Amino acid sequence: MTREEIKSLILEIIEDIDEEADFETLQPDKPLRDQLDLDSMDFLDIVMELRKRHQLQIPEEDYPHLASLNSCVNYLEPLLKNA
Amino acid sequence: MKVPLLIIGGGLSGIAAAIRFARFAPGALILEKHSRIGGLNSYYFRNNRLYETGLHAITNFAPAGNKKAPLNRLLRQLKLSRDQFVFHQQFQSEILFQGCESLVFSNDFQQLKDEINTKFPHSADGFTQLTAFLSNFDPFQITPFNSTRIFLESLLSDSLLIDMLLCPLMYYGSSIENDMDLSQFAIMFRAIFQEGMFRPGGTIKDFLDVLASHYHSLGGSLRTGAEVRTILHTNLTVHGVTLTTGETIECDYLLSTVGLSETLALLQKPETDYHVPRLSFVESIFQLPENKRSHLPQDRTIIFYNSAPEFHYCSPADLVDYSSGVICFPFNFNGLPQQEYIEVRSTHLANSSGWKALADDREGYVEQKSVTAEKSKQVLEEIIGTFKQDIVFQDTFTPLTIERYTAKKEGAIYGSPLKIKNGNLGYTNLFLAGTDQGFLGIVGSMLSGVSMVNQHILSRL
Fold first, then answer.
1. Is the pLDDT of residue B275 over 70?
2. Residues of chain A found within 8 Å of residue B24, distances taken between Cβ atoms
3. What Å distances lie between residue B49 and B46, B212, B346, B368, B401, CA to CA?
4. Measured between CA atoms, how close is A54 to chain B, in angstroms?
5. Which residue of B23, B24, B72 to mutate against A (max A Cβ within 10 Å)?
6. Tell me: the pLDDT tens digits for B157-213?
7. Beta strands in B313-429 (DSSP E)
8. Which residues of A are less than 8 Å from B458 in CB distance?
């Protein structure tokens, strides 16, 4: 997957969690949680969806890498390069 | 057979836990002892008519836009759309201490604040401090028991107000006598006073049907009439369960929603809390034709009353304590379609061991049940006026009825006085959810199932 594709994947997953999520003003380097009003329970959905869709096992200690849209892409890029 | 996740109990916490798991992984199985799901919030049929058990109202009402509210978080976690449900908000409810004072509240918290400012001016500032304190308080932190009474006495100068605030919160969720843990109080205060009450459209059956069909559509399985006899384990690792039929089902993870001491019994562990009294209740349903509704209160959804000089929330010496209780008018919610019949429901504290002693005395039991219905009607009529003459059907549930159909020990609907907030029983792959994990009410127990699966199971898959 390209960086652009990974970005779309994350946004698609978030939209699936919260159909009213507003991406217009989303800043890619700022924490997703604060900007989208996500809590830790919602956050687990992102991890679980990545597992379900791409068989990715993300250990709990790596969850901080998923904080912002940019850090998600950086973290997932090597993991999804053959996807 | 072997499944990844086995859930004991098809009540609302078990169903929610199962849906949460089924969203991300196949193979969840719910085992329900009764022939129907729902646990405490279920239904039965008499004369081809459906009667609900348990449900008076659902607490934790929240408008659709409030993403952080427990109700909306729950729906997101289960991937249920709010559009699948119709929610009817309460009109208003009342805390009535006869001969003393009355407080009316609704889903607009300001109404309760105004009532307190007018009727308890000396406690008005204290009440403002209380709400400020609660807005910064984290009730989900694991802390030792902290007395709500002592805390409230430090803030509110009117002891009557303290009892009046505690009355609905205790009746709708306290498993301990005459006090509450401050965390529990904070959860219930928000659930009932700040968020408020509603009920789903249709009956509890319709609500359960939506949940069950969602669960099945995600590939989950459910077996009713499946009673667990023992939990199979070696040291601190669980392998599965044996049913009363002798069948063995193996599992990777086991989630028990049947209560703390009930679960320990399945593990063949000794009792932990038998010396602490468990609180049980009697509940009566009085059904009337719709055209008699003008004889009943028009704008009250629930009345929490006390007629004793002091409010006691404890197991009574007699079979039933009629001096306090809850009166519910399930037809008084906004936007309900007209029905052929309406109901008045009453709840009072009961002495479960007294009722248990009647278990083998069929005649005595039936007689006491009808005495209970009569006395309950009498105290209700003093509060809401006469309606006895209009009743077309009535039924009473005792602690024995509740124990029989919900498997709650001693019919204690709010479970053990001891709660295991993190669901951890010291086993590697067995966790507790539901009533004895400490979240109460329909939204609370469902969030309990969800959060136990999130914390202990999904993150380890």
1. no
2. 48-49, 51-52
3. 5, 21, 19, 25, 19
4. 12
5. B24
6. 999 999 999 999 999 999 999 999 999 999 999 999 999 999 999 999 999 999 999
7. 320-328, 341-350, 393-397
8. 44, 48
Name the residue type at position B219. G
Chain B residues with CB under 8 Å of A39 CB are 68, 73
B2-84+202-274+418-460, what's its fold?
FAD/NAD(P)-binding domain (3.50.50)
For β-strands B320-328 and B300-306, DSSP reports them as antiparallel
Q: At what angle do helices B124-135 and B148-155 cross, to 10 degrees?
A: 130
Report chain A residues touching chain B, CB-CB < 8 A: 17-18, 20, 37, 39, 41-42, 44-45, 47-49, 51-52, 60
Kindly tell me if the per-residue pLDDT of B276 is higher than 80.
no
Beta strands in B106-236 (DSSP E): 198-200, 221-223, 228-234
User: Are the CB atoms for B432 and B191 separated by under 8 Å?
Assistant: no
Instruction: Look up residue B306 and give its two tokens.
Output: 């006390």
State pTM to two decimals.
Answer: 0.95
Domain boundaries, chain B: 2-84+202-274+418-460, 110-195, 280-409
**Quick one: CA torsion of B355, B357, B362, B366, rounded to 10 degrees?**
-20
Instruction: Point out which residues pair with B302 in neighbouring strands.
Output: B328
| Domains of chain A from N-terminus onward | 3-79 (1.10.1200.10)
User: How far are the Cα atoms of B174, B237, B315, B411 from residue B278, in angstroms, in the given order?
Assistant: 10, 30, 8, 8
